[in-house]
Amino acid sequence: MKYFIASDHAGFELKEYLKKQFKDLADLGPKEFIIEDDYPDYVYLLVQNIKKSLANSKGILICKNGVGVCIAANKFKGIRAGLTFSKEHALTLVSDDNINILCLPANFINQESAKEIVEEFFNQEFKPENRHLRRLKKVAIIENSNL
Predict the structure, then answer these.
(1) For an engineered disulfide with 99, which of 1, 13, 63, 82 has Cβ 3.0 to 4.6 Å away?
(2) Tens digits of per-residue pLDDT, 131-142?
(3) Average per-residue pLDDT in the chain?
(4) Rounded to an integer, what distance in angstroms lies between the CA atom of residue 71 and that of residue 35?
């Protein structure tokens, strides 16, 4: 499994902390604090890398409230991004909804909570129960529609 991480300026400090905690995280930027950067640029870079091997990669995106990166990531086909504030919630994002990108709100969680959430994200597996599979198929139908 390949793991990628990216943020905007608001998530930069948390990204740097998580890189130190998880040595196998590939940093897609920013490499330095840039106050004028825009999160969609880093979302795009991360999604490009995830889509090279969708079944074998996961990503972490961080911005101020986590919502911007989550919205942007979910615009891409095959991406299931989820925002969370707790490790208990992160468990269900993977086990029930099979997310491949974790979105974190830098201004609303502390570093230790973020570390616990990422550990949960990395260690959880999708539970392909009929209800989960049925729902993900319906999401794929929506994703492939022309709306």
Answers:
(1) 82
(2) 999 999 999 888
(3) 96
(4) 21
